[in-house]
User: Fold these one by one.
Assistant:
Number 1:
Amino acid sequence: MQDIHSLLANLHRPRLLMRAARIGAQDYRRTGHLPRLLGYGVLPRHGAALMRLVDMESDLEEQRIGADACYSLVHHVDVLIAIVGEARALRAATSGPQQVQF
């Protein structure tokens, strides 16, 4: 099983989708965005949320590639925005406090 960082590093999507996700992630708010995608209740930790979001996104990617009539581009971008936002938050949380050097 892959860790979350290598899983995200191997996630390759069309440029336009990822560009839209990065732009949208600038306004990402965890408390407003995640409950819409994962359901209301207690928000999961960053890693658990990312795993669920990646699973959702892989289903959407299969729909996109298969030209499924149920595919929603807006929903796909919404999930990618959450993935980018959560990945940034996880990276910031795992980097720990920054040391001041003199």
Number 2:
Amino acid sequence: MARAVKDIEKEIRTLSAEDKIALLRTLIAELDTPADPNVERAWLETAQRRYRELVEGKVKGIPGPLVFERLRARFGE
């Protein structure tokens, strides 16, 4: 039977920073599955459509600093 997650977490906390980083990289690589081609295609089509809308003047972009200012005002710093 697998050890309880709490026990594993407790042991991980005793690792050095370098060992924690190595463990994280290993776990992320294991969980990072190939992207679904249909999802990738949909995102690409959306990005291309939005770019065309900007170039054609159908929509107006919002400067990055203003976006972050609004987010900070909404969610706090």
